[in-house]
Design goal:
This protein has 8 helices and 4 strands; from the N terminus they run αβαβαβαβαααα. The chain is α/β, with parallel strands linked by helices.
Length: 252
Amino acid sequence: MLLYEMTWEAVSRLSPDTPVVFPVAALEQHGKHMPLFTDSLLLGEVVRRVSARYTDTALFAPLQWLGNSDHHLDFPGTLSAPPRVYLDMLAGFLENFIAHGFKRLLLLNGHGGNIVPINQVVFETRQRHRTRNDLLLLGATYWTLGSKPNEKNTDLSQTEMGHACEWETSMILRLDPRLVHNHRQVAEVPFGKGFEPANRGWITKDRSEPGHIGNPQLATAEKGELIFKLFSDDVSALLDRMIAWDGRSWDG
């Protein structure tokens, strides 16, 4: 079910146990070969595939394209909500639908810079409703839900999501190859280790002059289709767990 197609009366008739999905992404630089809207295009396609499987069992809000992208602001075209503004906006999404009576809410993420704000919002919202034992508040990033595309296709070189990398470039090639520019001529930018396992504060220019991280030269549309399928299946599996949750237990 797509929220933007519904009337308020139709929403009011839904079970309060209906999972509600809030897709959140970004508009930010993706190197010299990829469009600014990459994260939103990719998450939009994942949600399109998943929502087609849940036409009457889950509710999907419109994709929120503005993200927390301050670390990319050295690159023209990037739009970013300041971190604390972004926290308030995401919290508002959850509070709106808690007020509407819904109990199973998912912030589904498609941008690395949103991960920390989403986790913080889910934590804080639960504290505000600490007398409730029937709320399921989740944050999830679609590429961290279990699948490892490189294990399904050994032609995939990368073992993790980068930025305008082999994985993302392959996915855009699958969606619309017109949006990818000369990726075969783009040099690899290694992921690096930074100061792992410590968490280092960084901006993109610390790691990459052209803006990408990874190896877009290796991207193909065929790889992109596999990646979309795996990640869409992962999101569907999470929704199935939300639907099956007994409304009380810690595990699901």
